[in-house]
Write a structure and sequence with these properties.
Elements (H helix, E strand, L loop, with lengths): L32 H35 L4 E7 L5 H13 L6 E7 L4 H13 L4 E4 L8 H9 L4 E4 L11 E4 L2 H19 L5 E6 L5 H17 L2 E7 L4 H14 L6 E4 L2 H14 L10 E6 L2 H8 L5 E4 L5 H12 L7 E3 L4 E3 L6 E5 L5 E8 L2 H6 L2
Parallel strand pairs: 1-2, 1-3, 3-4, 4-5, 5-11, 6-7, 6-8, 8-9, 9-10, 12-14
Antiparallel strand pairs: 10-12, 13-14
This protein binds beta-D-fucofuranose.
Length: 384
């Protein structure tokens, strides 16, 4: 049964109560790196525990809906299946919006095709679902279809990537991508200084062009390219896939043979592809190599590479937004107000323990000091 919901647009805020299930808030300052590591591992374990807690809250809320005989229908237009991150994100949403929890979830994998994603949303409108969840492939082109959702009285929850050309959605849960890019730049600056590396010749393999995750990471990192006068040789998209990363890196290895010492991949899967290409070209990377390799996401396989010293630093992006998203739907269903925006906290992982923290001006203009977490097996085991 559809219930019309008046969305209350609250100001941007860290919604502490809605962070359950969002892994790894940055750990408290640690005196020693081993302390920081065990703190991070226990926070990672807490992530799982709080996601479970959020899931059980959803289940008990669902019990009440079930008692009233109500099933909430939800259409979810997912980006695709391009990465480990995406697989974890899909599972998180499917688990939270389960039949046992009182939901009827229709899942559409849009296979990275923006036109297919708009069509999926329009199909949900035609089916008159109660709620629509969108993880927008690209950040623009949404105003018309969101107006159609509003006209149909269907609240839209956006997760992960942002919509930047319309505010006609009820709530968003996701990451601060620009901060991830800024943190990568701040880390590279301090790391190069600590190692006495004076010249940085950088190749970037970016994510899907026009995705807010790509735009934010590029914009944040480029602040340092500009302020430090680094030489960014090239930036081409690998579409957030391993094959894409490999293909771009193969061409970089030919065009910039011997001329680069930093590779920035905007997700772990691209980094795996870049590693394959560098292996084939005889280019060494990581802690003992000639090339500094930076990545984003910090999925299990990515963190394993950091542990082995094959990725120097990995900036986490948390994909477990399903429980928060389901809780938003339940709050709306109960006629409650919800936060317009919920940011997930994210830790920064490194292979070496010499640098303990980085200080930078974040995307909100505040100067922050964040710990760098040396990866341990415990952290890998607790990852998504
Ligand atoms: O980094 C990448 C995925 O939107 C944050 O999409 C997400 C990105 C993530 O394909 O692995």
């Amino acid at each position: 049964m559809k219930r019309k919901v008046v969305s209350v647009l609250l100001s941007t805020a860290m919604a502490a109560t809605m962070l359950a299930g969002c892994g790894g808030s940055a750990p408290a300052p640690a005196a020693a790196s081993s302390e920081a590591a065990s703190e991070a591992a226990s926070q990672a374990a807490e992530t799982v525990a709080s996601a479970e807690e959020a899931a059980s809250e959803i289940a008990s809320e669902a019990g009440a809906d079930a008692a009233s005989g109500e099933t909430i229908s939800v259409g979810f237009a997912q980006v695709g299946h391009e990465s480990d991150w995406r697989t974890a994100a899909t599972k998180s949403v499917q688990d939270a919006f389960s039949a046992e929890n009182g939901f009827d979830l229709q899942f559409v994998d849009c296979d990275n095709d923006s036109a297919a994603q708009l069509e999926a949303v329009r199909n949900f409108i035609q089916q008159d679902v109660d709620y629509i969840v969108i993880d927008p492939i690209v950040s623009t082109g949404w105003d018309t279809v969101l107006q159609e959702c509003e006209d149909a009285g269907i609240p839209v929850i956006v997760i992960d990537r942002t919509i930047d050309d319309s505010d006609k959605y009820t709530a968003w849960v996701g990451s601060q991508f620009k901060n991830e890019g800024i943190a990568a730049g701040a880390w590279l600056k301090d790391y190069a200084a600590a190692k006495g590396i004076e010249e940085l010749n950088i190749l970037v393999i970016s994510g899907t062009t026009g995705a807010s995750a790509q735009l934010g990471r590029s914009e944040g990192f480029d602040q340092y390219v500009d302020s430090e006068g680094w030489n960014k040789l090239d930036e081409q998209t690998g579409d957030f896939t391993q094959e894409g990363g490999q293909e771009v890196m193969e061409s970089y290895c030919k065009s910039y043979n011997g001329k680069f010492n930093v590779v920035v991949c905007q997700n772990d899967n691209e980094a795996f592809g870049a590693q394959q290409a560098m292996d084939a070209a005889g280019v060494s990377y990581g802690v003992d190599g000639d090339v500094i390799l930076i990545s984003f996401d910090a999925c299990t396989a990515g963190l394993q590479q950091v542990l082995e010293g094959k990725i120097n630093a990995d900036f986490q992006c948390n994909p477990l937004s399903g429980p928060d998203c389901a809780k938003i739907v339940q709050s709306l269903q109960a006629g409650e107000e919800v936060q317009k925006e919920t940011f997930m906290a994210e830790p920064w992982y490194v292979a070496e323990s010499d640098l303990k923290s980085i200080t930078y001006t974040n995307a909100s203009g505040e100067e922050v000091t964040e710990d760098l977490i040396p990866v341990t097996q415990e952290i890998v085991d607790a990852a998504y």
